[in-house]
Automatic annotation (TrEMBL):
Pfam families: DUF1206
Membrane-spanning parts: 28-49, 69-87, 114-132, 158-176, 197-222, 242-262
InterPro entries registered for this protein in UniProt: DUF1206
Protein name in the entry: Uncharacterized protein DUF1206
All copies of domain DUF1206, residue ranges: 25-91, 114-180, 201-269
Organism: Williamsia limnetica
Top-rank taxon, per record: Bacteria
Amino acid sequence: MAENRVSGAVEKATDSTAFERAARAGHIVSGLVHLLIAFIIIRIAFGSGGNADQSGALGTLGSSPGGKTMLWIAAVAFLAMALWRVAEAIVGPHATEPGDDDSGASKLFDRAKAAGVALVYFGFAFSAFQFARGTGQSSGQQSAGLSARLMENTAGKTLLVVAGLVIIAIGGYHVYKGVTKNFLDDLKVSGGTVITPLGIAGYTAKGLVLIGAGVLVIVASINSDPSKATGIDGAVKTLGEAPFGKFLLILAGIGIAAYGLYSFAMARYSRM
């Protein structure tokens, strides 16, 4: 009975046009963040500094004219998207499509995925909130600090290896989603000459970067070197040190920019 009341309340909430629009704004902000990350990656390719991750993008956004206001808007939009994903975890994916069949293992996977995405967006919202208040910190430094504490014992190292494997799995899923065009199932439209290539390039590039970040976490854990466990920023900078690193960084920047542009399409056409 209580579960039915919760589901009913969630379904009523997702009937709100304002709530849906606020959640869709999360895609717009995500697109902007990925474009800023792409810009930082290109700068690194040509010898400039910067943190090629979410914290670097939010810091860049905050230092621009009107940046503080934009960060507060970003925090609200990310929070709305997180709450929408929580709703999908409760009532099933595509809450605005009541005729959608919500049975079977694939739907259970979709609910679990929605819960995971909700946690990611809650993290984004918190980061945007911190930068808006002027207390934001580098994601890479935070990751390295946490990794250093975990590496003090075997259990912590094991946890880091598991975390690295999870990141690799998420990255692999992104690559799969891009290569197979599975992302089109998330849209109200059938793709097109612009959206489909952006989705393929964006998901594949982001997936490869995540795989690199996961590998670095595992290697850092084995070698007890927390300075290497710095997330996406570390993966990008390690890529730059490889043969033809500049060329690879430019490709990565273009791919992440493609994901950012695809996020704008998601704001308009995603199934919610």
